[in-house]
Amino acid sequence: MKEFWCALKICFLVYLQIDCHGQNFQVIGSDLTNVSHPLRHVAILNNSTIVAVGGYGWGTGSIIKSTDYGESWSKTEVLRNLFQVTFVNDSLGYAVGEGATIMKTTDAGENWMYQNTSIISPAFQLKTVAFANNDTGFVGTANGPGFAYLYTYNGGETWMNVEEEGSVYGRARIQVVNDSTVYSLGYGHGAPLYRSNNLGQFWEEVSFPEDVGAPRDMYFFDRDTGIAIIREFDANCGSNFYFLRTNDAGVNWYSQYYNCTFVQELCFPSRTVGFALGLANTTLDVHNLWWTVDGGENWDTFEYSFNDGSGGLALSISCVDSDTCYMPANNGSIIKMTNPLEGTVSAVPPLNLGSFNIHPNPTSSYLTLTGSALLPGSELKVYNVAGQQVYSEVLPYAHETHTLDARRFGPAGLYLLHLNTPGHTPVVKKVVVQE
């Protein structure tokens, strides 16, 4: 059954401006999406078209769609709670969920068809889905009897189970990197990472460092370069997390460690800009979002709030580009974030950095930096919008003011200036260079 729901934007689209940051947040409320159950995943077909899926645990679910940036939504009710949705192109998409459910659309989510998954038990939850092309796709599973990892080479007309039990897992994420390479990550303590170099015909395990902890997510930019999120149990605060990074297809890994924190759901709208969900306190309505502008070499966080009294919690994040992202939540709402690369961001753990200002901004020549943050060892780095570093400098002694020639950054345009001082909170500020 398909229904169309339209409500006045002024009533249900709550606009939030976070103090001290340039990021903008809109809460697209459950009155507008017309669902009260969790929305677990979002796929973005183009700038204006969004498809979200979710449902009640071991209950019914729904697929909602907007073609006007989230101002109005259509809803398709489905039999099962859905976990993930993906689109091969602007028309062809798949959604997976509980009860071994796989659904397919060929008209951009207007209509959905159930596919035959009788090869496995309906007790399986289908957690992840990825397609390499119109025909070749993979589905990762959880919580069923025995082993299951599904694949198809004919667009889902026939789904098959990997014959060798335990040869590949994909509960955390499956990612098609190029025409031949697929990565697949298990979930939980000691879960392995797998790679196929021939679109799933054969899988090989990619070794993590010894005693790696519990993998939660991963993202690969190409066959060689990728990032994984790892959870480590901590008796004092519950969890420590770290980012593992490889530049040689998993032969070597190096890590960035953050104690007593939380990270999940990587999303990279570009090679350099990425986001991940962080700690959240729904009682205090304080939520953290991780971000990077150098391809995951360095990570910072900033805070945001729902500010609507709903106690909502973001469950995943998907981005149109580096400027616009959508985060479906556990209360049927969707948070739309715009302008995320603006403002001061706090590192983990947060420490007081002191004041730091830039003027004039915009500028056509020189920038003057002022504030108590300009300490010995402070490192200044400037990146263009493509994420390329165009300037760097380490301050040898304390400054009350410091001058930069912005013409050295490159042509007129937008740049991001990073100030990193050892033992203090990093700061990122936007700089506009004019002709």
Can you tell me about this structure?
The chain has helices spanning 9-12, 30-33; strands at residues 2-5, 13-17, 24-28, 39-44, 50-55, 61-66, 73-78, 82-87, 93-97, 101-105, 113-114, 125-131, 137-142, 149-152, 160-161, 173-176, 182-185, 193-196, 204-206, 214-220, 226-234, 238-246, 254-258, 264-267, 274-281, 286-292, 300-304, 318-321, 324-328, 334-338, 357-359, 366-370, 379-384, 389-394, 401-405, 413-420, 427-433. With 435 residues, the chain is mainly beta. The protein has 2 domains: 2-338, Methylamine Dehydrogenase, Chain H (7 Propeller), CATH 2.130.10.10; 357-433, Sandwich (Immunoglobulin-like). The strands form 9 sheets. It has a 5-stranded antiparallel sheet with strand order 1-7-6-5-4, with no helix packed on it. The longest helix is centred in the N-terminal third of the chain and has 4 residues, at 9-12.
Question: Summarize this, please?
Answer:
The chain has 435 residues and is mostly beta strands. The protein has two domains: 2-338, 7 Propeller (Methylamine Dehydrogenase, Chain H); 357-433, Immunoglobulin-like (Sandwich), CATH 2.60.40.3080. The protein has helices at 9-12, 30-33; strands at 2-5, 13-17, 24-28, 39-44, 50-55, 61-66, 73-78, 82-87, 93-97, 101-105, 113-114, 125-131, 137-142, 149-152, 160-161, 173-176, 182-185, 193-196, 204-206, 214-220, 226-234, 238-246, 254-258, 264-267, 274-281, 286-292, 300-304, 318-321, 324-328, 334-338, 357-359, 366-370, 379-384, 389-394, 401-405, 413-420, 427-433.
